[in-house]
Specification:
- This protein is of the alpha/beta class.
- The protein contains four helices and three strands; from the N terminus they run αβαβαβα.
- It has a three-stranded parallel beta sheet.
- The radius of gyration is 13 Å and the shape is globular.
Length: 88
Amino acid sequence: GREISGIIYDNWRRDRQRAVWFSLSADLIFDARRDLRDIGAGHLPIESLSKFSGYDVHSLDDGFPEGVLFCTYSSLIAQNQYQQRRID
């Protein structure tokens, strides 16, 4: 986790201020926040993909213009009532 945090923070400091952190479990977002904080990057915004209800990738541009998007495989392939998947 700290290695991933370090890579994300290095990219942040190079003006690449969007990242996707894939994980097995949604509960690990708490560990990701801790790891970012422990390396001095606790100020970086981190949000779970499941927080966003939209299935249009462009909806993230308005709701989350920069930061770390924490994503699990299950939230990535989840379907809405119209059978749309985020991964599509």
